[in-house]
Each structure stands twice: as C-alpha cells, then as structure tokens.
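Attaching the record inline, Q. Sequence:
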Amino acid sequence: MRHLILALLTLCPSLPLAFEIEAETTFAAEDESRILRIISTTDTGVFTPIIEGFQAENPDTTIIYTAVSSSQINQAIVEEGAVFDVAISSAMDLQTKLANDGHTLQYASDATALIPDWGTWRDSVFAFTQEPAALVLSPAALGDLPIPTSRQELIGLLRDHPDVFAGRIATYDVRSSGLGYLFATQDSRTSESFWRLTELMGSLDVQLYCCSSDMIEDVSRGEIAIAYNVLGSYAEARTDLADSIVIVEPEDYTTVMLRSAVILRDTLDRDAAEAFVDHLLTQAWQPGRSDFPFPNPLEDAPNARPIPLGPGLLVFLDQLKRDQFLSEWQNAILQ
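Structure, as predicted:
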C-alpha cells in the first residue's frame, strides 16, 4: 500500500482559499510524473480502495484527494476558482448545477456506455452508486420500544415517548449540508408526512449534523437514539458497529441517491481525469468488481424511490425557492 501523506492545500499559493477542507490526503505514486486532484464528499477511507486500484494501473499518477462537504465543492470551484480535475459528490443537484452552468466537460467512452440511461446526464454527470437514505437506530437507547419501519411508525413512536427521544434524534443541518438539503427537498415532494415529522423532531430538540458518519458514531454510542436520512451505505460499511446499530430502509418509501463524478472544465490533466473516471465507472457497472466499496447496483425493491438525474434537480436550487424552503424548515425545526 502506498504511503499516505497528509498535506496542506497548495493548489494556488498566491490566492487564499476559504472553502473548508475536512481532510486532504496525498496518495504518492512511484513515479510522480502526473498529479490528479480530486475534490470529493466521500470519506477518504471509503474511497481508498478505488484510488489504490487506479494507481495499480497508473503507477505514474499521484492523487491529491480533498474531502469536503457537498456545499463546499461548489464554493471551491464556482466562487473561489480552486483548480481540481474531478469532483465527486453525493449531492446530485449540485453536480447537475455544475454541469448546467458550464463548469464540467463532456466525455464519452466504453466505460460511460456501461451506465444505465437514468444514471448519466448530458455526457457530463456520471452516477456510480445507488445509495438509500436510511434510519439508523440504537437498540440500547430504544430498549423494549419497537423499531419503526416507516415514517408513520416513527412519528407515532416519537409522539408517544417524548421523554425517551428529547435531544436524542439526529438529522442533517440542511442549511450547510448539500446532501441533507437534497434529501429534505425530495422528502417534501414525495410525502405529506415530511413537515409533520420535521415539526415533531424540532419540538424534541433535534440534533443537527453535517455528516452521516458523525451521526452513525453517536448512534453507536447511544448518545443519539434515532438518526433520520443517514446514508445507508456508510452505515452498512461500519461492520465494527454491527452490534450497536440497526439500519432500517423505510417501507413507505426509501429515497435513493446516486453518487456521481464530473470532469471539471479547468482540469490541468484531462487525460488523467478521464482515465480515473473510466476506472471508477468500470468498477461500478461492470461485473466482477474487485476494489469497489459501495453496494451497487441496488437490488430492486418496491419501496425504492431513486432520485432521477436531470434539470428537475435544479428546481430547489433557485434562490427564491431555496430561501422559501429553508425558512419553512427553520420555522419547523428550530423551536
């Protein structure tokens, strides 16, 4: 395994960059003749097998992997002009907006042809996972209480036992989490119960988080009893926590997110970016995957509601609609 070196951001030393970096890791190549810069919302540890598999085939390419929140990708690229080659994100709407606003390059290859029609948009946004939004629960915190299998059951459980759940429910802070905002707006479109559940969580002093991984950790410790709209793939990957968490895909409907990659317009090495996307998509969609850490493709399920790629994702990114949604959300959840 290649040595991992934690590094400071040095993409543009003459310009101070203000976007927030969660972690940055350099995967040093044997022959550092090429550098590929990836900005991503996926935890570094989750993506490491894919990077190492790519470098096994491309030993001349050093990869600088910058992990950020989904909203920070757009701030870095659009607002601050930071230079990256590939952007990987769970926020489908923000990836679509990058492509729609001209910040990405079109690309077609044998690898992109493997993607189902619903998993790509304008030869610019390429889906490589299907990941459900799940409930993650602490069996220790619930005790003898029943495990809810739908939103209606969750609402009933919270209403009947406010003493158990006050201050011990978690969900995304949609003001800062692009994925959380995507899940919440899709919920509001799909279910009439969304606002009732949001108001109920708000009345019980819901705890707001940036990331699924943090919610999963706190559930595993029993500090949080129930986390809503957590990435099921992250929870499933935590096999070390199997005895301390329960994962539920709601039977009324399960929102399914498509994690995607784009090649950025200002890439400094388009060939390396295209080669990486080819490797990623081949691992995702071709049988016999060896270093792919995500459960893909998702098994057909009657309750699955995949979020389609396309211009419909831009509706809630309109500033007026976004402001209106966030105002209603804050009124419901910040009580």
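Confidence is low (pLDDT under 50) at residues 1-15. Residues 17 and 80 are 7 Å apart (CA to CA).

More tomorrow.
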